[in-house]
Write a structure and sequence with these properties.
It is a single chain. The protein is of the alpha/beta class. The protein has a single domain (about 5-170, about 195-240), classed as Rossmann fold, CATH 3.40.50.150. It has 9 helices and 9 strands. It has helices at about 20-30, 35-45, 45-60, 75-80, 95-100, 140-150, 170-190, 195-205, 210-220, and strands at about 10, 15, 65-70, 85-90, 110-115, 125-130, 150-165, 220-230, 235-240. The strands form 2 sheets. The chain has a 7-stranded mixed beta sheet with strand order 5-4-3-6-7-9-8, with helices on both faces. Strands 1-2 form a two-stranded antiparallel sheet. α2 (about 35-45) runs antiparallel to α7 (about 170-190) and α7 (about 170-190) runs antiparallel to α8.
Length: about 240
């Protein structure tokens, strides 16, 4: 795909070719996979668990549904979505992240290697597609959203949990924590300060709530809306594939 979208070439504060961006992001997750879940707990002070619980509540998984958790990594969300009466498929481009997930021995969870822009799924085969803290790392955002729409059944739902733009009064404190504490935690716990520098910088470059909602609408989704979490630090976006 041509590098016409600036987001497809941004890696933190640098601009690189899209193929190089994909390589660097893959390396980021290869390096942090063993400590990824621990870092999430420390960075968010455990609040990410509440956010994911909210995502799963909105997904409202039901018996017999085909559910896909995209960029599902270590299976943290899939474990909450799965159950004895329903199987969840995790699709992720990182073997290392999925290896960490498989090591958890999760029941009712399948794992597939794949990219968001080229999902290994039939058209109109999925009831619910979730993605948590993964859409920022997709190189071709609009292509990924188009793929999500393609694989969903008519009436199927797309749910995306992602870091977003916090309230103005919170921004100075949030920036202080993001640019000082998180990279130090990355150096200490994950032994990868560069990976968490990228994390913080990628959050800043990602579209805000309204702009991302327009991307979802432009991909052909209906009933597009969002819900801020923790004063906008994170946000859940939702859309539905139209019935016709």
């Amino acid at each position: 795909m041509p590098d016409t979208d600036p987001l497809s070439r941004s890696f933190g504060n640098a601009f690189v070719a899209s193929v190089e961006r994909e390589r660097r992001i893959r390396n980021v997750f290869e390096s942090v996979a063993p400590r990824y879940d621990l870092m999430n707990d420390l960075m968010s002070l455990g609040i990410h668990r509440l956010w994911k619980r909210r995502l799963v509540a909105l997904a409202a998984p039901r018996a017999g549904q085909c559910i896909v958790d995209l960029a599902g990594g270590t299976g943290d969300v899939a474990a909450r979505l799965a159950g004895p009466d329903r199987q969840v498929t995790v699709i992720d481009p990182s073997e290392a992240m999925m290896a960490a997930g498989r090591a958890r021995g999760l029941a009712h969870v399948d794992w597939q290697l794949g990219a968001a822009e080229r999902l290994p799924l039939a058209a109109g085969s999925v009831d619910t597609l979730t993605i948590a803290f993964g859409i920022r790392n997709v190189t071709h955002l609009d292509a990924a959203l188009a793929e999500a729409r393609r694989v969903l059944k008519p009436g199927g739902r797309f749910l995306c949990l992602e870091f977003s733009t916090p309230r103005p009064w919170l921004r100075p404190f949030y920036d202080l924590f993001s640019f000082t504490v998180i990279p130090r935690l990355g150096a200490w716990i994950a032994r990868s300060p560069q990976a968490y520098d990228y994390l913080v910088e990628s959050i800043r470059r990602f579209p805000d709530q309204g702009a991302f909602a327009r991307h979802i609408q432009d991909a052909g989704f209906a009933d597009v809306h969002w819900r801020d979490l923790s004063f906008g630090i994170a946000c859940i976006h939702a859309g539905t594939r139209p019935l016709a």
